[in-house]
Each structure stands twice: as structure tokens, then as C-alpha cells.
Amino acid sequence: MRRSASLISTLAAIGAVAAATPASASDLLYPGGTLLTEGAIGKPVWMIQAQCAGFFGATSNVLNERGDISGAQQAKAQGAQFARDAIERLMKDRSLSRPAATEALGQAVDSGRAEGFQKIKNGGGFESRSHWNTTRSVCLDVADVYNKSLRWK
Predict the structure, then answer these.
(1) How many domains are there within the chain?
(2) 72-125 pLDDT tens trace
(3) Which 8-state DSSP code applies to residue 31?
(4) Phi, psi at 46, each rounded to 5°
(5) Which of 48, 46, 134 is nearest to 94 (CA)?
(6) pTM of the shown model
């Protein structure tokens, strides 16, 4: 039950940003891939990637504050990769310049960062059955599907 509540809140956050930033007809939409990511089906890929970038940014910040420098660096690298992928995807989908795409991602990154802090603070920290870990799994599943079948579309 705890894991499904976390999944619902993660997907609700994705939906809230999606409502605030309407998909363009040219946006590549997430087709699904795993049970965890079913709620993201039909959302713009770049938006999910941007939220994951913010989520891993929050993770990096908290781990750094706790003195886990290695973990913070790993989370920072994951967040940076999500950000790079989101920028490239948005540039391709909407024919935007890099600066315009970067600016357009702001709300989704901020939403992911806020969600990350919330999941860590109020959702069981970094434990294996925490809300944070469920969101982390959703992001990693999205990255896996993107890298295996969507990157070149």
C-alpha cells in the first residue's frame, strides 16, 4: 500500500506539470514500459526526464548535506544525464534552440526537485521501501525505455 501511494503521488506530480505545460503535437509521448511507469503513458518524454533531473538534483543535495559525497556525485550525474536528455528531446520535438529548451524545462525540473525533497523528508528517506525509492525506480525505468527504444525517434 505504501509503495502504491508513492507511485500515485509521483504520477500525480507528472500529471500536474503536464497540465501546466501542454504537450505539443510534435512531442514524443512516453509509450510505457513497466508496471511502475504505466501512469506516465502519454506524457511528453522530455517532461518526465526534466522532473527526474530535478528529483536527482534534490537527492544529490540531501546526500551532500549528509556527507555522502560519493552518493551525491552519483545522483548529480544521473540528474545531469536526465537534464541533457530532456533538453535534446525538447530541441528535437519542438525545434527549439538549446537556450529556449533549457528555459522551457524550468517548471518541470522545479517540480521534480520539490517532489524529491518531499519524498526524502516525509516518505521514508532513502530506504528500499520508501517513496523516494519508488520515484527513483520510475525515473530509471523511463531512462531505460528511452535509451533502448526512444532516443533516436
Answers:
(1) 1
(2) 999 999 999 999 999 999 999 999 999 999 999 999 999 999 999 999 998 789
(3) -
(4) -60, -35
(5) 46
(6) 0.84
